[in-house]
Specification:
Layout lengths: L6 H26 L3 H26 L5 H74 L8
Helix pairs in contact: 1-2, 2-3
């Protein structure tokens, strides 16, 4: 290897570049969305990138003073994710209940329409039967008041 360049420096530079690119992509996803869950995951990725950046800084400077900050960031990310997941679950449950109510109303309307159609069919069948029996009576002479 070339004097003055060590493997740790190269690794830190590559890791820093990758973390920076990942953070930029996460910001793009936060801005573009489209859903709250996409933004949640991108926020988690961004916080992870921040934690990785702090870890890289710890490696470069050779200290451990930022470990409490890393723990606080991890806890914030965890509790934020749980809070948003609960919110989305409640929102999804309310949406599901609304859709079920709408479906029940549609089913009831369809059942009423089917019942009305069945009643119309039954009336048509009765009328056709009465017409047919009236035509049969007219041919045989029954029901016209004439006696054979």
């Amino acid at each position: 290897m070339t004097p003055g360049i060590d493997l740790v420096s190269v690794g830190v530079a590559v890791a820093g570049a990758l973390v920076l690119v990942t953070a930029l992509l996460a910001v793009v996803r936060i801005v573009r969305g489209p859903s709250i869950l996409d933004r949640l995951i991108a926020t988690d990725v961004l916080i992870s990138c921040l934690m990785l950046g702090l870890g890289i800084e710890m490696i470069l400077d050779g200290h451990t003073r930022t470990i409490p900050l890393l723990v606080a960031l991890a806890a914030t990310a965890l509790f934020g994710t749980i809070a948003v997941a609960r919110y989305v679950t409640k929102q999804d449950r309310a949406e599901r209940e609304r859709l079920e109510r709408e479906q029940a109303e549609r089913n009831a309307a369809e059942a009423a329409a089917d019942a009305a159609a069945d009643d119309d069919d039954a009336l048509t069948d009765r009328r056709d039967a009465l017409h047919a029996s009236g035509a049969a009576n007219a041919v045989t002479g029954r029901g016209t008041g004439e006696r054979a």
